[in-house]
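fyi for ur records
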Amino acid sequence: MQASPGGGRASGTVYIQRPGRMRFEYDPPATMLIVSDGSVVALRDSELRTTERTPLRSTPLNLILGSNIDLDRNARVLRVSQAGPWLMVTARDRGGQTDGQIVLQFFGESAELRSWDVIDATGARTRITLSDATQPASFDRALFRLEDMLDRNRPGQRR
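which gave:
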């Protein structure tokens, strides 16, 4: 579930395969698709017929998509707090290549990532909340190919 700064909500499926690969497939009526192939994050709006590309290293997602998540080395941790079983870590890119910050929210003794907030340079907050998580061994690599974003069918399907 994604909660946007303006109060909008969108649900869908997120696929994460580290290092660097992520795909957000939003349920209708949303018209957005976000894909990271490991070096570029592309945002496709099929209604507007636009695709924006940003280097992964220039987004807060870079902090959670590394092969090894090492906030001590790759981030500047701004705050760590705990509320009951929740641990919240606020961080920003150590190298200064990213505007904004990310708040990672972990739950329980195993510190399972349950949600994150991306706060942009203007202070606008977008929250991603995970539910019904599964951990398959791997995903079809086509899920993370930017070229497949332009295809209306799911990756791997042929017309």
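The longest strand covers residues 75-83. thats all i got for now
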